[in-house]
Amino acid sequence: MTDELCISDLRLKSRFMLGSGKTSDYSPELIKAAVEVAGVEMISVAIAKLEIEDSPAKYIPDRVHILPNTLGARDADSAVDMVHWAYDKGFGKIVKLEIMSDSKYFLPDPAETKKATSILAAEGFTVIPYMYPEIVTARELYKAGAAALMPLASPSGSNKGLQTKDFIQVLIKEIELPIIVDAGIGMPSQACEAMEMGCAAVMAKTGLSTAGDLDLMADSFKKAIEAGRTAYLSCHPKKLKDINIDIA
User: Fold this and answer.
1) How many other CB atoms are there within 10 angstroms of residue 208's CB atom?
2) Which of 17, 152, 179, 236 has the fewest CB atoms found within 10 Å of its own CB?
């Protein structure tokens, strides 16, 4: 049986995604290590970076999905405008929605995120909102038409790992959408833990981009995510219940 990550009509074999991190800067070496060594099939790029001359999109192979994200949006209207621009430029209808009205802590704005999700989902976009892992917000985003959820593990770029683990576990149990842990995953062991508890995928960047050896770290992330996924799938049903994971 093929174990694929399914987000709406999209099917991915890899459960490791390259994110924007605290900054949206990429190097060709980072992209190459992520794709060729880690097997990444989806890379999230800030929409603002898609329009510059030296866009990271230039270095991303055609076989890899570019996930435009609305990094920099402060409200729903600006996020929706960004998504429309990216779509008009040919970047498809799958988008990562990031709306952070707070410029100090860079935490997602739940009200504006819900508003933009509702607008974009109604227009036929596959919306993956970035959110704080809080069940009321998660339920509202689900009702608004989100295709998956991206709860933060800890502050973006912090490499602190699963600081919100218990809250993410609630989402895994209660929300019938792929839960893709995002932000703060700095080490392969943290990515493995997220997968072992039942997350559908891991998005990370800073932990990879700050490594002394990109290829070694990329390979470590790949193996850790695969190991965590295998451990989750191989759990005894009683153990899954004990750690509050519903059996499909």
Assistant:
1) 25
2) 236
Which residue in the block uniquely carries the two structure tokens 């153990």?
239
Q: What is the pLDDT of residue 248?
A: 37
- pLDDT band for position 212 (50/70/90)? confident
Q: Is-contact 138 174, C-beta < 8 A?
A: yes
Comparing C-alpha atoms, which of 23, 33, 60 is closest to residue 208?
A: 33
- Residues 15, 195: Cα–Cα separation, whole Å: 9
At residue 172, what are phi and psi to the nearest 5 degrees? -60, -40
| 96 a catalytic residue | yes
Contact 164, 194 (CB under 8 A): no
At 84 the three-state DSSP class reads helix
- pLDDT at residue 229 is higher than 80: yes
d(Cα 245, Cα 184) in Å, to the nearest integer?
Answer: 23
C-alpha 41/C-alpha 212 separation (Å) is 23
Beta strand extents in the chain (DSSP E only): 5-7, 10-12, 16-18, 42-46, 65-69, 94-97, 126-131, 150-151, 180-182, 201-204
CA distance 118 to 85: 18
Instruction: Give the separation between CA 149 and CA 19, rounded to whole angstroms.
Output: 14
